[in-house]
Design brief:
Elements (H helix, E strand, L loop, with lengths): L2 H9 L6 H7 L1 H6 L4 E2 L4 E13 L5 E14 L6 E15 L11 E7 L14 E3 H6 L2 E7 L12 E12 L9 E14 L3 H4 L4 E4 L5 E5 L6 H12 L22 E2 L4 H19 L8 E6 L10 H4 L8 E6 H19 L7 E7 L1
Helix pairs in contact: 6-9
Amino acid sequence: MDQRAWLEKVTNTDPVDLRQECRDHATEAGATPKGWLRDRMLQCFKARKYVSARGIDGEPWGEISWDMWVLGYANHGVRQVDYLISMENVSYFSVPGKTVNWPQTQFDITFHGCSDAMTCPSQVDLKDTVAGWMARPSRSLTFSSSNNVGSGLDFRVPAWLIMDHRTIPAASDNLLPSMQAGMFESKIRFDSAGRTVVGRDYGSVFTDAPLIYMLSLSEDAVKQSARHIYDALNHPQRTFPSWLGKTVPGGSMQDPLTRLTDQQKILENRNESIKVCKDIWGDNYAQGGLQCDEFPFASTYQGGKYGPASNGGYLRFSARPIPGDDNNAGGGSRLGQKFYWENRILDGEAFYVRIDP
């Protein structure tokens, strides 16, 4: 399968041009072995790489360089992760008085970290001469996991894939091989969490991607939800329940929120928040179409009941009546059916909230 057909297969009509976005984030894409993660579904690495040819005496004989690309695609719908590995724009030279058979030098790529809970691809195709890579610069790999393999009720299978690059001199050259270990790395997870939790029965994600739920104070549809969260995180003295020294979690990964999927516990969190709304604004607080909004969200372990229960009784949450449509968008459908589902966030996974102007 050629590169175009392969990309059409793995992206499944996804409008995102990952290669172009990787170029647009070139600094991040080459800064570390994990490259740049657009989100939990897309990862890329791109950097210019160099290898010196050295004789057994340690003297330099020449140098080869190339653009190293890795495009990674996780998946909503199947427990599968695909990678497109490319070595492009190959350039080489030999120092005066030395000759290196660069076309017959071998470039070998190897991925490590595949576990018994995964189906691991053959990597024979990733071992080729420089001439072979120049003729066909892109190769693909697919890692997968069976639906009912893994830990817990959602059959989680984590993996940490690490890519090494090895340069093997041509048989005619009396040169030393070289290894670039850990050139690229990718932390992934397969799960079978189901449609009610993450929208689709099976899938995979890149777990290094940051999980940030974002709302804006200037967006009319969620303006009051955003204002409530902003006050809770930045001016907790303006929120209820009120107590001296109050802080509210969820503003950073140092003090994150963690998703809660047990519907009974979510209801219990919500009921605790409603008690606060009634206590402060009266039993008729919902008149005019208002609802009791809570932060941290009822769908987190930091909510009205389970947050205090796990935090020495401290009431590190806020409840406030806001318009029902705003509440249903900011802390309801947008949180659940967009943020949780699109990122396949499972029970106990951490995230934080950012409020933009």
